[in-house]
Each structure stands twice: as C-alpha cells, then as structure tokens.
Write a structure and sequence with these properties.
Protein name: Permease
InterPro entries: DUF6803 (IPR046547)
Pfam families: DUF6803 (PF20617)
Keywords: Membrane, Transmembrane, Transmembrane helix
Number of helices: 7
Largest sheet: none
Organism: Chitiniphilus eburneus
Distance between the termini: 22 Å
Oligomer: single chain
C-alpha cells in the first residue's frame, strides 16, 4: 500500500513514533476536551478539574511546539527540498497535523496568562473551548487524509513516477 508521510511516520519505529507523535498529544488534548466539558457544564471555573485542564493545556502546547519544530526540521524541510511529497493527501495530512500547534499553543499561552489577560473568566473559557474545538477539527482532518492512499488524489508511487520517464 502507498501511504502518506503522516501514516509512514506513525508506522515507523513501532511503538515509539506512535506514542510520541500520536498518543501523547491526543491523550493531552482529550484530557483538555473532556475536562473542558465538565468545567463548562458545571460552570466550575476553578477547582481540581480546572487545574487538570490547565496543566494538560500547557503541557500539550509546549509538547506539540517541540513536535512541530522537530518535524519541520526533520521532515517538512527535507521532503520539500528533495521533492518527495506524495501529492495533495500528503500535504493536507502533514499540514493539518502541524497546524495543531496553533490551537495547542494558544491554549498554553492562554493558560499561562500570556494572552487575553484582561478578559473575564467566561470570555477566557469561551476562547479556551474554541481552541479545543479547532484542535479537534485540524487533528481529525489530518487523520482522515493521513489514512488515505495518496493515489486516490492522483499521486503516483515514486517507482511508477520514475518508470514513465
């Protein structure tokens, strides 16, 4: 099967890449999302759940910033320089995965009180919930396109592409 670089990354070096690039960010983000629901439903803007939510948000933002930098330097730049992208599904999967740094970074900045300092608690929670939702959307787009065979959107495996020349 021909696969995107997103899927290849997760499939390589088992189980470590799957843990580092999928499990850790998803567990942190899901912790934020689940605690966010209880916080918003109960209007419990402080307390143990909010402390867990805040810690997971900060950890996710910092961790994923490291993942973003690592993958930009070790995957995106080399793939681009060597012309090794596997078509639109590949670009979309990797691009959306890496764009997760925006909402996760935003969550960390918000919970570190580096942005929106003057907003009241309800406004901050609305921004927080919006960033959680944005992360869920970009992560799922990345997963869907990452699991897609790149040939479905017209990419050809390298061996087939070179055979035509």
């Amino acid at each position: 099967m021909y696969m995107t670089h997103y899927m290849a990354l997760l499939a390589d070096n088992q189980p470590w890449n799957l843990i580092l690039f999928m499990a850790v960010p998803v567990i942190l983000a899901e912790t934020v999302a689940i605690t966010e629901l209880f916080i918003l439903l109960g209007r419990a803007y402080d307390g143990a759940l909010r402390r867990i939510n805040r810690a997971a948000s900060i950890a996710a933002g910092i961790y994923f910033t490291g993942v973003f930098i690592y993958l930009m330097l070790n995957a995106v730049v080399p793939l681009t320089q060597q012309g090794l992208w596997r078509g639109p599904a590949d670009w979309i999967a990797v691009g959306f995965y890496l764009s997760g740094v925006i909402p996760l970074g935003g969550l960390a900045l918000l919970d570190l009180n580096w942005i929106c300092r003057r907003a009241d608690v309800q406004r901050r929670m609305a921004i927080h919930a919006s960033l959680v939702a944005l992360f869920l959307v970009v992560a799922h787009v990345a997963m869907v396109f990452g699991m897609l065979d790149p040939s479905v959107l017209g990419a050809m495996p390298m061996a087939a592409a070179h055979a035509g020349h």
